């Protein structure tokens, strides 16, 4: 104990100026910038004022002027001959000094967030001569903070995205609040973040406001959007602290974690036999709950096909079945093939254990169309002597209906624009008649007709033009 006292005396001896005031408890306070008794009186040494900084709490709510502190000079003998003068920030308006006692008061409530410190100057004058008894000396009045400002976020609502199926602890977004209170004094601006809504899916770092995923396997196809409410509370989160909140709208972005699937694994398509090559005869569609690029699909016929092909409609993601070769109802009426669908783009993280393709069977039925009769030969060439009489037998033509072999076929002649001579055609047209010969044929109505010489020429011309008429 004695050793400690000796060391303290040695330190004071080194620091104490040779011209200082007497070594008394009051003067020790002046040396270290400490106030006397109530902490507000400032004394001077022979070499000038020994100032301590004044502190004043903001937002004073009293009815009278708020006491700041007291200036005092050793030149003041208490006889009223000393006058204290105050100049600088707010002197005479915000701050008033009693020129006799040196007491300083604030005239109104002060807000640290508007101005945190005021710099003023003090003088000691002889009241009778206004002679300066002390040199002009500067001192500060610092406004002490109280917790009068709640934390505020820059936005009322934030928007963020995070990929679905993210690992626990994946950072989503950081939201921070600001507090206008003094960051260097107390805990008025010490913020702690917490999550009020959004658990158990998300968590927040209590120190920096970073939101992270907290639940594994969050699936966008199950739930896509989340509303998370974050609170920032000052006073280090203690009871009585002020708080502010914000909402964070979090959307799970899509990844390709779902393969395409056919709702039905069998499709029936009908096609008329007259469909042009390259024409579409039907559409099939698989479902993929993913979106955008992750839902893009491509269709193909397993093993290929001679008659049909399938392409992908990039807009609707449907498989469009098209014709590669002409259909013929009379040759083949039914087809069947398998179609494969798969994603265009794959995510290596999710292909293990999942088959990112599916299959379906397509059955095509060809429908008949009414086709015109077809002659067995085209053209017919018949030689006739030039002097053959009208009405003479010159030859036989035969036709069949490709839709049904037992369907009746009727024959007729038609005037032609191409005749040997107009007069002859006109004469033949009015005189020649079609006559039938009851020749043996297995078809009752599909007879073989005998044509007069001029009519044969016209029929040949009609066949060349593929123009057929029936009676």
UniProtKB/TrEMBL annotation:
The keyword Protein biosynthesis does not apply. It is a single-pass type I membrane protein. The lineage of its organism: Eukaryota, Metazoa, Chordata, Craniata, Vertebrata. Keywords: Calcium, Cell adhesion, Cell membrane, Cleavage on pair of basic residues, Glycoprotein, Membrane, Metal-binding, Repeat, Signal, Transmembrane, Transmembrane helix. GO terms for biological process: adherens junction organization; calcium-dependent cell-cell adhesion via plasma membrane cell adhesion molecules; cell migration; cell morphogenesis; cell-cell adhesion mediated by cadherin; cell-cell junction assembly; homophilic cell adhesion via plasma membrane adhesion molecules; synaptic membrane adhesion. It is found in: Cell membrane. Residues 1-20 form the signal peptide. InterPro entries: Cadherin, Cadherin-like_dom, Cadherin-like_sf. It comes from Lates calcarifer (Barramundi). GO terms for cellular component: adherens junction; catenin complex. GO terms for molecular function: beta-catenin binding; cadherin binding; calcium ion binding. This is Cadherin 10. Residues 73-153, 154-262, 263-375 form the Cadherin domain.
């Amino acid at each position: 104990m004695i050793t400690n006292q000796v060391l303290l005396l040695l330190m004071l001896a080194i620091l104490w100026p040779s011209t200082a005031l007497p070594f008394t408890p009051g003067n020790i306070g002046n040396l270290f910038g400490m106030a006397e008794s109530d902490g507000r009186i400032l004394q001077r040494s022979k070499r000038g004022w020994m100032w301590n900084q004044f502190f004043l709490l903001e937002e004073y709510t009293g009815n009278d002027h708020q006491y700041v502190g007291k200036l005092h000079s050793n030149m003041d003998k208490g006889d009223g001959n000393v006058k204290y003068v105050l100049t600088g920030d707010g002197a005479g308006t915000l701050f008033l000094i009693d020129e006799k006692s040196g007491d300083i008061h604030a005239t109104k409530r002060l807000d640290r967030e508007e101005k945190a410190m005021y710099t003023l100057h003090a003088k000691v004058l002889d009241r009778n001569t206004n002679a300066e008894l002390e040199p002009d000396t500067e001192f500060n009045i610092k406004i002490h903070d109280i917790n009068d400002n709640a934390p505020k976020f820059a936005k009322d609502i934030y928007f963020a995205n995070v990929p679905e199926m993210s690992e626990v602890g994946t950072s989503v977004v950081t939201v921070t609040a600001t507090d206008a209170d003094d960051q260097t004094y107390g805990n008025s601006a010490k913020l702690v973040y917490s999550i009020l809504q959004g658990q158990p899916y998300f968590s927040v770092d209590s120190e920096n406001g970073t939101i992270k995923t907290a639940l594994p396997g969050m699936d966008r196809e199950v739930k896509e959007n989340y509303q998370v409410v974050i609170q920032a509370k000052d006073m280090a989160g203690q009871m009585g602290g002020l708080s502010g909140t914000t909402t964070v709208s979090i959307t799970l972005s899509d990844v390709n974690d779902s393969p395409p699937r056919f709702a039905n694994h069998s499709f029936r398509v009908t096609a008329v036999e007259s469909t042009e090559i390259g024409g579409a005869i039907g559409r099939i569609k698989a479902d993929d709950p993913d979106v955008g690029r992750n839902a893009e699909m491509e269709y193909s016929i397993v093993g290929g096909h001679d008659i049909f092909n399938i392409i992908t409609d990039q807009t609707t993601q449907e498989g469009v079945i098209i014709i590669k070769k002409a259909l013929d109802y009379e040759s083949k009426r039914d087809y069947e093939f398998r179609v494969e669908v798969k994603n265009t783009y794959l995510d290596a993280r999710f292909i293990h254990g999942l088959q990112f393709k599916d299959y379906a069977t397509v059955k095509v039925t060809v429908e008949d169309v009414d086709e015109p009769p077809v002659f067995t030969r085209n053209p017919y060439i018949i030689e006739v002597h030039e002097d053959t009489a009208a009405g003479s037998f010159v030859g036989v033509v035969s036709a069949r209906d490709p839709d049904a072999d037992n369907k009746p076929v009727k024959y007729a002649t038609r005037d032609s624009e191409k005749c040997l001579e107009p007069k002859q055609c006109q004469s033949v047209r009015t005189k020649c008649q079609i006559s039938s010969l009851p020749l043996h044929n297995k078809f009752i109505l599909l007879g073989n007709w005998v044509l007069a010489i001029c009519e044969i020429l016209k029929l040949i011309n009609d066949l060349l033009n593929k123009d057929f008429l029936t009676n």
